[in-house]
Design brief:
There is one protein chain. It is built from 3 helices and 2 strands. The longest helix has 25 residues. The protein has a two-stranded parallel ribbon with strand order 1-2. It is mainly alpha-helical and 92 residues long.
Length: 92
């Protein structure tokens, strides 16, 4: 598919998968399987982008960076009496 697009002069941007906890059981085994699968797919997509010298939008890396930063900030400022929803800024 990449080769077909490139042969027609179409610019290609590959996207890594994004993490989504809205489905599945959420238990430890399930989370481990999803994380492993995401890592395998992400490595494959990164390799293809490099091999074909096409663009890459690494959604998983952005999400991981956001989670790491948010976890650090939240742990610094966490007040057990007050919880803030990360997207809205409103108290729960």
């Amino acid at each position: 598919m990449i080769e077909a697009a490139l042969s027609r002069g179409i610019k290609v941007i590959l996207l890594t998968p994004a993490w989504d906890r809205s489905y599945g059981t959420g238990d430890t085994a399930w989370l481990s399987l999803v994380q492993h699968t995401l890592q395998i797919n992400t490595l494959q997509i990164r390799r293809l982008a490099q091999e074909y010298e096409v663009g890459l939008s690494d959604s998983l890396q952005c999400f991981s960076g956001y989670n790491e930063l948010y976890s650090i900030e939240r742990s610094r400022h966490e007040d057990p009496q007050r919880r803030v929803q990360p997207d809205s800024g409103k108290d729960q």
